[in-house]
Specification:
The protein is α/β, with parallel strands linked by helices and 143 residues long. Helix content is 48%, strand content 22%. Helix 3 crosses helix 4. The mean pLDDT is 86.
Length: 143
């Protein structure tokens, strides 16, 4: 991933896509808005627009693995989404294990005082994207 450029984090889903971006020093991830999608193509176009707006140099897509590390139907969808994002944007795109990111995101929202389950449901996907991206930058900064 290119140093000095921001990275976009994506929590891909069939109904909603959560997004987050990190600073150019790759220290802190910040959630962006949740996007309610109509189709995979629609999601790809939206993520590509956000990548341009945020002036990112790379994209990280959460890879939904089962707890035992095996793959599911959703894993294949995320892989296809990442491949298409890379083709459309021309940006390096990596997959990053997102196991338990939604659980962690929900806990972070509760800790932040978001008590209503309905309110958390509207924020959890972008917070999950933040968790995915923060995990990615922490791992790559240690290497």
């Amino acid at each position: 991933m290119e140093s000095g450029k921001k990275i976009l984090g994506v929590d891909f889903g069939l109904k909603r896509v959560g997004l987050a971006v990190c600073d150019s020093l790759h220290i802190l991830a910040t959630p962006l808005s949740v996007y309610r999608t109509k189709s995979m193509r629609d999601s790809i176009d939206h993520v590509a627009r956000v990548a341009v707006e945020q002036d990112v140099g790379a994209i990280v897509v959460g890879l939904p693995l089962n707890l035992d590390g095996s793959e599911s139907v959703q894993t294949g969808r995320a892989r296809a989404f990442a491949r298409n994002i890379e083709k459309v944007t021309g940006l390096p795109t990596e997959l990053f294990d997102e196991r338990l990111s939604t659980v962690e995101a929900d806990e972070l929202l509760i800790d932040a005082g978001v008590k209503s389950a309905a309110a958390r449901a509207n924020l959890v996907d972008s917070m999950a994207a933040k968790v995915i991206l923060q995990g990615y930058i922490e791992k790559t900064n240690r290497q």
